[in-house]
Amino acid sequence: WDEPLIFELTSPGERGVGVPVPDLPVPDLPAGLRRSEAPGLPEMSQPHVLRHYLRLSQENLGVDLNVDVGQGTCTMKYSPKVNDGFVRDPRISELHPLQDESTVQGVLEILYRLEGLLKEISGMDRVSLQPASGSSAIYTNVSMIRAYHAARGEGDVRDEVITTQYSHPTNAAAPKTAGYKVITLMPDADGYPDIEALKAAVGPRTAALLITNPEDTGIFNPRIEEFVRIVHEAGGLCCYDQANANGILGITRARDAGFDLCHFNLHKTFSTPHMCGGPAAGASAVTEALAPFLPRPTVEFDGSRYHLDDDRPESVGKIRPFYGVVPNLVRAYAWIMALGGEGLRAVAETAVLNNNYLISKVLRIRGVSLPYAEGQRRIEQARYSWEQLNADTGIHSEQLGYRVADFGTHYWTSHHPYLVPEPMTLEPTESYSQADLDEYAAILAEVVREAYEDPETVRTAPHNGPIHQMRGDSLDDPGTWAVTWRAYQRKLA
Amino acid sequence: WDEPLIFELTSPGERGVGVPVPDLPVPDLPAGLRRSEAPGLPEMSQPHVLRHYLRLSQENLGVDLNVDVGQGTCTMKYSPKVNDGFVRDPRISELHPLQDESTVQGVLEILYRLEGLLKEISGMDRVSLQPASGSSAIYTNVSMIRAYHAARGEGDVRDEVITTQYSHPTNAAAPKTAGYKVITLMPDADGYPDIEALKAAVGPRTAALLITNPEDTGIFNPRIEEFVRIVHEAGGLCCYDQANANGILGITRARDAGFDLCHFNLHKTFSTPHMCGGPAAGASAVTEALAPFLPRPTVEFDGSRYHLDDDRPESVGKIRPFYGVVPNLVRAYAWIMALGGEGLRAVAETAVLNNNYLISKVLRIRGVSLPYAEGQRRIEQARYSWEQLNADTGIHSEQLGYRVADFGTHYWTSHHPYLVPEPMTLEPTESYSQADLDEYAAILAEVVREAYEDPETVRTAPHNGPIHQMRGDSLDDPGTWAVTWRAYQRKLA
Amino acid sequence: MLAAIGAESVEEFYADIPDSIRLHRPLDLPAPLRSEAELVRHMDDLLSRNIPARLSFLGAGCYRHHIPAVVEEVANRSEFLTAYAGEPYEDHGRFQALWEYQSLMGELLEMDVVNVPTYDGFQAAGTALRMAGRATGRRRLLLVGPIDPDKVSKIVDFVRPDHDVEVLDGTEDGWQTADLVVGADVAAVYIEAPNFHGVLDPALPSLAERAHAVGALLVVGCNPISLGAVAPPAAYGADIVCGDIQPLGIRMSFGGGNAGFIATRDEERLVREFPSRLFGVIPTVVEGEYGFGDVFYDRTSFALREEGKEWVGTAAALNGIMAGVYLALMGPQGMREIGETILALTRYAQERLSEVPGVEAPNRDKVSFADFVLRFTGERTAAEINTLLLEQGIQGGLALSDTDALYCVTEIHTREDVDRLAATLQEIVK
Amino acid sequence: MLAAIGAESVEEFYADIPDSIRLHRPLDLPAPLRSEAELVRHMDDLLSRNIPARLSFLGAGCYRHHIPAVVEEVANRSEFLTAYAGEPYEDHGRFQALWEYQSLMGELLEMDVVNVPTYDGFQAAGTALRMAGRATGRRRLLLVGPIDPDKVSKIVDFVRPDHDVEVLDGTEDGWQTADLVVGADVAAVYIEAPNFHGVLDPALPSLAERAHAVGALLVVGCNPISLGAVAPPAAYGADIVCGDIQPLGIRMSFGGGNAGFIATRDEERLVREFPSRLFGVIPTVVEGEYGFGDVFYDRTSFALREEGKEWVGTAAALNGIMAGVYLALMGPQGMREIGETILALTRYAQERLSEVPGVEAPNRDKVSFADFVLRFTGERTAAEINTLLLEQGIQGGLALSDTDALYCVTEIHTREDVDRLAATLQEIVK
């Protein structure tokens, strides 16, 4: 399809859906509050709206359509369709969050049970399901850390948070937003966060360490207990970003390594679909010591009825309206219930097996390397480098990625900054078969062959996509960026 | 996508969905009734099955995706998505047909009301909603005709049914199946069924006339009352195939022209989706005289409760298990209720306007003609001929159609035999805008330009589809046809 | 647009319709529900008067099974839901999905030829019998019961022009083998596995020989969901197999989910008698690419009008695609398990329920699949018992007579469901 | 696969995990529900203990509107539902759909810059205020009430490091204009249209001037579904507009449907303060083709970690696509009608209900949109009245105090629904 912009499809007088118009007078609005001109929305019939978006959908690549191992750190796994049915059921989708508690016992029970499941999976004592995403959960944890130190009279003293370079950017950005000074540990020669740097950084100003393990390189830091000990000894808290938990479910838990807080991305590890970038769902898990600071309300059970407890005086308060991204919480609950403890462990082991298998295939391709920790295994993902290929051919990793898209799949590089040069991050999860991984590796190999033998084809990619190469960087120039049709018409049309 | 056959995707040991296995003994089956070898189904994980079918779906062209005016006679109209929701609602989808009547009053009321709506739309006295499709409704009507004459002692005498060449093939095939000799009226020079031939054909052996109006040429036969009169005078019944009712809703009705029976295709005129070729739904409407022969059961209302009446001694019996293709009956009911009487008439007028607009655009293209009834309007569709283009370029209508598919839409020729040489039948319905029709005509014009200027491109089409030209006619040879993977492996692999 | 056409008004396009048959008033229909919100409210009011049974023991030709979510995900795709009769090129996906359905059913049935689904199992039986009649050129059809009387009604109406139908309903729940006299005028013997009462008749494997001995064909109706555990009729010599695919992943929808299949061996004399579309695979000009098209199109009424076999038209294609998705999800292991689960539960239900005083399971000594007969020997009729069960939130089976009813269990029932029925019957049956 | 890797067992891959932190036992979780059928049954049991209200008057930040079927048809597409963070080339559809969402909202809001949705309206308000703080470099934030106290809680927690928050809640349902003293230390004045009590404050159009006079920004939270009838805040001088798009075609889902928007004029000093992704349009090498990408990526934490603005991560993109579909379906006419319908019904409800003895509508003299306050002057509290309403099948409004409750009507309510509430209250309110 060469689908136009929706504003180009307007056909004056057409409408997509009718609205009930009761025979009642419309009250007069106060001066200045009546809209003077109708909004410049397109006028379209219902089939035209539908056709437009169906075509756009066909120009998009979901997990369901491809071997989606290329979005490393994102844990692109299959989300069972049956779970979508539960959340589309009116008995979830049509519930108002303020309904009488007697009419929502089922959903409260699901929330309560899900907290219980995540307590066992993490080893923690309480879990809040209110955060809207992983980043929101990181912020929630930081907010609780802040409240914890404040409650102990150390709120003003402890104004530093330590994190690591290979943790998700929000581990740096959220504490900064919460008012902390951020110290970032760089990787040592083996790719582990530099423990000497940690020792140098900790002290009475340390509020917390925010760390991921395995980090986005897929390398598990075996000295994690020591990291925790060092921070604890300095009076700081330790907060575990479990974005990469998919390879270690049932293998090792945040509490077992001594952490005080952790969070899960339910849309990664627990399979809720990624939805073009959310809504997601996060879970913040804490030890008893931090439980008083959890967001309100919590879900409680008195032996016969589930209810919401909003009376939590030390709580950091609300993180989100009402009680979290409930549809995703329902999906995550169902996913865990279908698997059980051994099923979760099988998920982890399969994901790790798939990753190490893919590594063995990819490393046979010319021009690629796997920086750090040579000879050691990776857990559930791996960050590769095309530095050699770039040196040989001038082709950048991004360009390889554009060409890979021509073959019906894709990959991304990784988060900035590119400490690993010309990066590519692959995370195959448990959802793919050996044949899928072979197919993916074969596509990479073919594109690399082109890079060496016919680099122009790679350099001018994509060729089979819905659009061709974009021009220039007008998006960084206030004179040409256009975030809306209004702006586009004014600046570029 | 270059999607393999599903059997090529097997991965032994994988499963798509689990089955509950109770802890109960499996009884021994009688000798010879135990399956000895497991069926050779593929073994696939759930995401693999889903991915396969999603990719196949993207290799298919639904009404929702394209300007689907090319399947003339099929009335490809937009089916409002909201109606799909009603039939997916468990209060329809999870109803067993034999449930206690007290628990299915809602669906019975819908069926009863839908009969009422169709009575008014057709002018008839009773309507059966049991037929599974238009063809099934034609057969049902023929079966009632047979029962009617039998009840009057003329069953053996009246053994001929008259139909017309431009009616759907089932108007010939169903009476033949029901044991009738079939007489087909050919079109006269103006494209009308030859009235002289009718006069010659009718007589004491005439059971019925099965006729469409407008026929698949889109031409309305203005002497239809005379046809009915001639047949009635000979003691035959008149049965109106209203497959082409979309252009005449609220304009003229079967009863008004004197018919005894008629049928509607609810999946055409009344918008239920076409589903790759069914399930559809048919409605057989009759006058009081034929009502005793309607399929059983009928839906009745006693003033307080809806119930099924299976006690109909003269009924032709069951046409289908239970009560018809209920989901489509629900959709059709909702569609009519959203439109009302004036809405239906607006549907007809828009469809006719669209058709005549498209005719005016298409006839400007080189090499096309509109046989019959020159200078007269068409109702809701038109059968064109590429005879001139074929003479000029050697390109056949089918080949044009293959090339049109490269542009993201399509057309078909028409039913056999091709009385109109090199036919193309277009029926734009009410669902398309002027811009859509312009786009469609522009595609036709472009392909015709190619046919004249670059015929090889047309001759070797398709070029942009999921597959390329198919070879040979192995499908007519018992030695090479392969209806299943089993047969394919044996014969061709 | 009118100007572009050169017309004054839409009325011009209706010039050919005589005034005498014009409707000179608006259709007298209810006022339109113009907004989606009002329509939804209207429909919701109607739908709220339907109450799906949470615990039901109804079967009898329409079965509640678990529908894997992926089946409906695929079926609800706009691309499949709203497509129709496009050509193999731009509708490649539909052709492939239906050919794969045929192929998956072929594996289940162990037969090489399977049609694009026809309307329902009734139609499939009627057509299968007429196919047998055309292939043999004979008039008599022997139907071995018990068969759903509604299905017999349909068959009789459908075959009437060419065939005499004889129904051998036997006594009780079976027929006496000795009663089956297959004469040389017989086109086909038709029997079901399981039959209307759920019984898998031990005589099934012996019938092919008796039919074939006089040149008749054996036509078997079967429930495809049994075939992972139960032998496919082809294994015991059936020539034509037919039935309903509703159990394979299609909702009951008040009887709207039924769709029929017909299968044969790959013999030209049988293949040429199919009225339905049969898709076949065909190579394209590109090596390794598959195309699909109609096998032997000149069988059909699309090609030859009344000279084709019966007729073909819009049938039940999407149900075929759904059944294909279902079979692909289940795989050989899933089909075996579901067959065995239902066999086990049907046996358990008969045993458990016949422990209730006043309840008998007359076919306990045979093997039943899903459907089974209960006999109430107390004072209350089967229909009265249903009314009392409904008060307890249970939908009982189909009343066959005052004493007998046809109950049904599938994999969605648990042992506890059966126990609850037993406990409730214990209270009710006096 | 192990052999291909050269590993003995999966254990090898875990060699780096010290034994001391290994879990040496299986996770103690409930036995798995291995079959979909069992899972569905388990979930159905839980879901059966939820009872959506057929007639409800709850709003207060989560609204029941009619959701056009096409909205969910699009949102449920696998291609959108399961995609994530692909590049503009192979995820062109997602980029375009989100850019179109931004654009459609831009038309509704009359603003040139709209973000890819953030988590919810609470977060949108918090971020909008911090954007204002960063743009002005000032500490004080003035919040003009009534505002949902939960939202205030979120804002206070979120802006704490950089801002002092002052909430001016006024008396009754408004604030006294004289109370609003905007000093030169004020970063932003925040107010809502309609406010928490549903009122469209007549003072709104006068605020921009007062804020701008001292260099403060005016930040307005609004309900986007009102804006076909009600003036967009940009029209009366708002600098930043924020709110929740849940009303635009997204189900309530027990509060799971909320998602936030933030919009500004196209001024670099404001645009650079967005933490969210902002998609922009860009030409490709093929004339007439559009591509999409991130505008000024170096604002974000994706680019600069803690040096970016706040943070960005997975947010609520699909809700944005849904709201876009909703706006495209409604068009200018639909948005005007729905705004007017809700205004009319809100007025009618206040008038009709205040006819009931013991019931007052204290804001009757103002214009309310959707939400409105009822005051019960009898002996029963608002909570007690809710309990009694529930017995009659009606879910009442949110109790704000013993006497006051926040009720809500939208286009899904009919005049008859309001009359039924009035009649029921008449019985209950003593």
Automatic annotation (TrEMBL), chains C, D:
Gene3D superfamilies, alphabetized: Aspartate Aminotransferase, domain 1 (3.90.1150.10), Type I PLP-dependent aspartate aminotransferase-like (Major domain) (3.40.640.10)
Annotated protein name in UniProt: Aminomethyl-transferring glycine dehydrogenase subunit GcvPA
Keyword Oxidoreductase (UniProt): yes
Organism this protein belongs to: Catenulispora subtropica
Keywords: Oxidoreductase
Annotated ranges, domain Glycine cleavage system P-protein N-terminal: 1-424
Record-linked PANTHER family: GLYCINE CLEAVAGE SYSTEM P-PROTEIN (PTHR42806), GLYCINE DEHYDROGENASE (DECARBOXYLATING) (PTHR42806:SF1)
Entries under InterPro entries matching the protein: GcvPA, GDC-P_N, PyrdxlP-dep_Trfase, PyrdxlP-dep_Trfase_major, PyrdxlP-dep_Trfase_small
This protein's record includes keyword Ribosomal protein: no
